[in-house]
Amino acid sequence: MANQTDTKVHHWHTLSADEAAKNLETNHQTGLNAAQVAERTAFHGPNALREKRRRSPWRMLLDQFTEFMIMVLIVAAIISGFVGDVGDTIFIIVIVILNAVVGFVQEFRAERAMAALKRMSEASARVLRDSQVETINASELVPGDVVLLEAGNVVPADFRLVEAAQLRIDESALTGESVAVEKQIHALSLVDAPLGDKTCLAYKGTIVTYGRGRGLVIATGMQSELGKIATLLSEGDDTKTPLQKRLANFGKWISLAALTICVLVFVIGVIRGESLLLMFMTAMSLAVAAIPETLPTVVTISLALGAHKMVKQHALIQSLPAVETLGSVTFICSDKTGTLTQNKMHVTTLFANGELCTAWQDEKNSIESKNEPWLTLFQALALSNDAHLDGHKKIQGEPTEAALLRAAQEAGFVKATLEKDMPRLKELAFDSERKRMTTFHRKDNGIIAYTKGSPEALVSQCTRMFTSSGEQTIDQAALLQQAEAMATNGLRVLAFAYRHWDTLPDSDQPESLECELIFIGFAGLIDPPRNEAKEAVSLCKSAGITPVMVTGDHPATARAIAYQLGILADSGGRVMTGAELAKLDEKTFKAEVELVRVYARVDPAQKIKIVRALQDKGEIVAMTGDGVNDAPALKAADIGIAMGKGGTDVAREASRMVLLDDNFATIVNAVRYGRRLYDNIRKFVRYAVTTNSAEVLTIFLAPFLGLPIPLLPTHILWINLVTDGLPALALTAEPAERSVMRRPPRPPQESLFSHGMWQHMIWVGLLMAGLTLFAQAWAYHTGSSHWQTMAFTVLTLSQLAHVMAIRSEKESLFSIGIFSNRPLAAAVIVTFMLQMATIYVPAFNAIFKTEPLSVSELLVCMALSSIVFIAVEIEKMLIRRGCLYRIQNS
Fold it and tell me: Is 335 among the catalytic positions?
């Protein structure tokens, strides 16, 4: 059956209306009959988006517990429970549950994206069947149905238009084009025309803003353009963020290393004659301490704190790791319409009397006094216009006409006032073929007709031009050259003319009415860039982030906006079109992708191609957008950023971050938070691994130095819970480094332990272990019974000294301020007080088997611990002087 296959193979925009009807085996005057509808419904199925088979919520939740790090934590909880520390067991279990929930929420988000697409596509339709017009659910449409369209309708399927009466459709959410598309019914010759240029087609999910039409359904459900986007969206992969990857690798490495050392400690202790039970409990306790089980919690808390603050800055985080990802992003691929621009047409340039004008607000008196052409132009802007003011004095109407009316009002020409003196008597509606519209008005004792249209269509009908010297001979070539010059600046240019009539003409034929016109001037319109977006682009560049415009709009417009925003360095910068991109093979495109700053006339699949090509080059890519067409790329990018006010539900659901104020500049604040949070996570890892290694080395090296086991299992767990806990968590509140926005993004492949971090962890861990063992050896060989308490105290206090010293990777603590991180200062004081309690409170002495230290012993412990602080401060001084490591500082 022809209609079962032809919907997939034909370039519908190249077929005439009759040819399309023939291929669909339908009649656009009568529609399908009941038998045809039933047959096609059975073959094509409902006009709805289908979802791929999904795992149940329970399956998703259970899968979270198969992660290696989570499994290690579960084992650690069991071990902790075995040695009798119920508090630590509960703490680890809470961590496991928290991380499982976070992972579950991330996966569940993809299903919401599909649900949003389905909600968007739900609509009713007025369909012609058996010569009768009826209203049905849009899901019941089949290929070959004849559907009626009018202003306000959501297009329920993909159509080949067969009638179009002043039909304009807003396709901005699908193609990115900011101007409503003027539809027509004639076949096009270009087979590979971009989606937005197929003006005889209408697409599912777009909105009719003006006029009426009739179309033949050519694609439904997943075969429609919207359905193809749904397919792309469902095929996208949820990739882990750079931080998740680094933490996963780090967790495996440190866990295996810690478990190996714990086994060695147990074996060596037993060989030396230590109690089997003591060594078993020591090894198990050391395993709990050595594995940084607080890392997932600290990461979650860090990101949550950042997300909380970012909500106050109008950025809603839907996936917590997205905060960190944004801090490491190297490319921002941004849609133009509604993201970098206001998605609101504005008249920016006017041309009349041979002069260009860019500032006419409140200049009515000066314009009137200088010349008549400007007065006539503003009258034409207001009167040859179907936009109007509503009861709330807001302009209602098609965006282009609303912009023209607004420009007239800014110059003091109010449509309602003008119409009292020059009421509209008749009109010739806009037609996409002739590209003009005309309104007739009574003026004094005669009639004046104002005509507006495209420069090519209107100037050719003009025989004279209106100047301050009166009506003069027209130079059509010069005027068209002027229009082209305006268009080169990214402006959409409309021309205006008038003609006087003695009486209202009876004819309705445009050929006889729109001729022998007198040219008035041009209006240049643009979807202006956001003021804050320009500053945000500049700040992104200073932070080493490359902004890229990816739009479905016209290349000239894209180039102009990109130049105004600073994305392009010069007005003649290169713009790659979707057609050019389609011709490039994968290898050639990858070689150029990092050099292109503007893409125009691209479709959704090409946006994904751009994102993935950048990712293949090692870049971390953020994608901002607001339309349905952005959703697959938002999902494919390392982080998708949607507009909250002007964006579609589909884009928001597919994104990891939503800008609640639709302000591109909010991204800059998010970048700062992201970089700060990553820095703080590095500081936590530096602190946790260093202190844990100090604990392991202390116990591991003691037997080789002829010393007894320096720490009891309770000491290890106490240090793990208190010393490693409170100060480590407080590091998440550390203010941003001064150079956080003056340095390039971290290379995507950069190790978490770069810039001297692993060297620091080794030598400081050894230093703390050495100081602890020195205190033990000194007390042990002098006959003091406090040797174990002193070792316990030195190790605890040296960790507090360490956490204060590493608040900045290179700045001195005294430079950034001791109390600039109040939570950390409080955590250190509280931890110090708790440690003193274990020494001097009798109840704690019984639990931890400690003994009160003398003043001199305590001073020795504090002096040894302070060596760690001094040594790290010296390390940072050498870093600042460029003598040690290589830290990003620019």
Answer: yes
